[in-house]
Amino acid sequence: MSELNLILLGPPGAGKGTQAERLRADFELPYYATGDILRAAVKADTDLGREAREYMDRGDLVPDELICKVVIDRVDSDEARDGFVLDGFPRTVGQAEELHRALEGLERQLTATLLIDAPDEEVIRRLSGRRVCLDSGHTYHVEFDPPKNDGFCDQDGSALVQRDDDKLETVRHRLEVFHQQTKPLVELYEREGLLRRFDGTRSPEEVNGHIRATLATLRLEEQI
Ligand code: AMP
Questions:
Q1: Domains of the chain
Q2: Alpha-carbon distance 33 to 82, whole Å?
């Protein structure tokens, strides 16, 4: 397969980031997570960060025109010549259309959209229990992966905090946003024959195994 151009789709907290880590390691692909890009911009207090912040804190999507160019510039960079993994983009039909146009202009196309799905109750449990180290960014979970000392990072002893957008009400709102604005992409990619589904309630190892098997099949199909 000449290129591996992948999108990870799914509700927040379904495990897209975890799977992306493994895909990066397995296939040496650059990974562009728009949530991470935007959080870094907020932290660095850039123009993008200042514009994005209020939307993010509320759990709303930032406007398409703020995020599309950021992603398309990366997709069109040297490091992404052999492929890329997009996580958290596209999130609206408008973003998907813009990405499609940009790829067409570059005479490239998507290889697959990997949908990692999980029910709302599971997402709420996972995200509202998540705690992040202020210093290292290391994450814990009050129920599934608690630190040894309640409220403090095992690695450097810094305080653990809850991200504003992981607060219960905001998680509920992010889910609503997912169902209203991002779910339509599932149908869109299904119609285009690009969608592959994975059960995000399975263990990360199982999901990774299924994804690897799917990508291996896609490669075989391409050779036929
Ligand atoms: P995430 O970590 O992917 O859940 O993203 C965190 C927040 O960043 C989201 O709740 C949005 O406010 C914003 N965001 C990330 N990706 C996008 C996108 N593709 N379009 C609009 N907003 C985004």
A1: 4-119+173-223 (3.40.50.300)
A2: 18
